[in-house]
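seq:
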Amino acid sequence: MLNTRPCKTLHLGAIFLLTTIVVSACGGSKTKSVLPSTSSSSSSSSSGMSLTLLPIPTKPGGSKLSAGDGFSLAVKASGEVVGWGEYGFGCTGHIPVAAQTGVVAVSAGRLHCSALKADGTVLVWGDGPSDMPSLTNIPLSAQSNVVALSAGSDFSLALKPNGSVVAWGSDFWDQCKVPTAAGSGVVAISAGYDHGLALKSNGSVLAWGRNDHGETTVPAAAQSGVIAISAAGSYSLALKADGSVVAWGSLDDTNVPVAAKTGVIAISAGLDYALAIKTDGSVIAWGRKSFGPIDLPADVKSGVVAVSAGSTHSLALKADGSVVAWGADTSVPVVAQSGVIAVALGAYNYALKADGSVVAWLSHGLAPVPAEAQSSVAAINAAPLFLKTDGTVVGDLAPSVGPLTGIKSLSLADYGVSFGLALKTDGSVIAWGDNTYGQTTLPLDAKAGVTAVSAADGHSLALKADGSVVAWGDNSHGESTVPLAAKSGVVAISAGAMSLS
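struct:
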C-alpha cells in the first residue's frame, strides 16, 4: 500500500556515509544495527570447526543517524550534531556546544540523547524525569576511551576498547547490571527500552534487563553466527552472517517476513516494528502497523545505506547523503525545503533562510512570524528571538527596555527561570529578566572583554577573550563556582540546567 503519511528528504550536507553500519540503538523505540567494520580473525573451536571471530572496535564509531521518540539526530561531515522533530525531553532543543564538532556517532533514547566524539569522550543531554537516577551522570569509566555507545529509554550503554560494557541510568529492571560475560570480548551493544544486548566476538548474543515479553531470552539461533544486533521497546533483533534476521520478544520470529530471511545487510528495531536493508539497497519493514510507520515511501526502495526506526517515525540515509523521513510529524513545508541556513526548535519549528527571511511551522502547517522578523534576520533561537543584521533584537522575549543595538550573539534560559543575555560587539554584556538568583546582576568581570555568553536555569556564564570563564547566579549545586581548570585556555562555554536525579 502507498504511504499516505508525509515523507521528506533532507540534505544535511555530507552526512558521513557508512561502508558498514556500526553500533546504535534508540531507547524506548529503538534504532540501528551493529556491524563490526574491521577485519576479522579465525581460530579453531573445540570441535575442530573453523570459527570466525568478530573484531572488537579500537576506534570510536557508530551510527550517524538515530530516530528517537518523535525526534531525530544526525551527524554531519563536519562532526556537528543536528536534531529536529519534537522537543524530545530537551534532546533537540538543547544540543550542547561540545556536540557541534568532532562527533562520530549519535544515539537517541526516549528521555535522553548521547554522542560519541572522535577522542573517545561521551556526551549525554536531555531532561528526563526527576524521579530517576541522572542520565547525565556519566560514570568515570565511560567518560573517556569509549568506542561505541547506545541510549535506551532511561539508561545508556558504552563499549570500551577492551571489549567490556559500562551501563548507567535507571536500574529498575536491572538494565544496568551488566552480566559478567559482557566484561570482555564484546564487539557491539544495543540498548532497548528496558533491556540491553551485547554481541560477543564469537557471534553469540547476551541479553539482560526486563524480560516481560521474552526480550532477554536469547533463542538458540542467536547464540552463534550473529554479526549485528538491535534492541527495541520489548523485543530484540539479530542479523546472522547468512543474511537472515532472528527476532525474539514481543515481536518474535513468527513476525519476520520471508524477505528478511535472506539477503539482509542491516537491521533496526523500532517501538513495535522493524526495518532491514537488503543487498540491493532497498528497505523492508514489518510489525504492528498501529505502532510504527511500515508503509514505505518510494525513496527507500533503492540506494539506502543506513536506517533508523524510532517510535512513530523512521529515517533512511541514502548514498547521496540525503535523509528520507516517514511516519508521524515529518512534514516540512516547501518554503523550508531549500535555502535554509539555520533552524531552531521551540513552540514552532523555525528556519532562517539565506535571504534573511524566517519560516515557522508545525505539523499542521505554517505558523505566523512577527512582521519585523520577516526580513534581514541574521540569527534565530527557540525562544524565539530574532537577531537582525543591523544588530537589533526582536521577539516576544526581547528586553522590555526597547530594541537592543550592536548585538553579536544571544543566549536565553529556555526553562526554569526566564532571563536572557546579549553580547554586544564591543565585548560588553546586557542581561534582563528574572533575577531571583542574581543571574542578571552582572559581575565586574563580565562587563567588558567578553567573547561568548550562555544562560541556563538560574545561572549565567561568560567567556573572556583571555580564555577565562566568569559565572554568576544560582550556586546551590556549585554551578557558579568556576574550577581552576576553567580559569584559562577555554574556547567555548555552555550553561546547563540542574542535573536530574
